[in-house]
Amino acid sequence: WEGKRLVQLSDLHSGDPNAAQMIRRAVALANAEAPDLLVITGDFVVRKKQEVGPCIRALRGLGARLGVFAVPGDHDYVQRTTIPMPGLFGALRGAGLRLLLNDAVELPGGLRLAGVGPGTHQIELDHLESALAALGGRVPHVLLAHSPDTLPRAASAGVPVMLSGHSHGGQVVVPFYGPPITHVRLGRRFASGWSGLGATRPYTNRCIGRHPSPP
Fold first, then answer.
1. Secondary structure (3-state) at 31
2. Is the pLDDT of residue 189 over 80?
3. DSSP class of 84
4. Contact status, residue 142 vs residue 113, Cβ threshold 8 Å
5. Which phi and psi angles does 80 have, rounded to 5°?
């Protein structure tokens, strides 16, 4: 996979003000990169099933040579329970996205890609063991996880790279201090960009949409 191009999007939050415009722009920018692989690390909607349709219509334009893969976020479940947002998962699959819900796949050229459900302080559905079992116990080269909080288990399993979102980069970053609120149980250094834990290199996407206020 040397020389291949991977593009990551995260936390689209369809339903937020300006979300439709932001998602369309993100799709256009992603396609302009001509990616070999495109991944989305969750939070397609905010909190209503009516937000599914506009999101899917925008995502139908996405393309990558070896496919578009995704994992759900905590907002993609009804009130952050274990019940998926009605119609969302089926609509994503219908739009050509492959959901890796505690699952994994080996792509042409040998890249092992795994994905887990959301694991946050409100919902814990990230069953890494199931994803590893799907590879026959082999370690994935890249793990998709909505929240950086999955990182300690990924590092323990020897996963070399983990891609996540959820934190929105802290949204507000105080000079010389960093983000006061990250929505992540790990330290602030895991709130955005590249970091590290053991031999694992995690990358936290700063996300497309803003983090919504409570209903």
1. helix
2. yes
3. B
4. yes
5. 55, 40
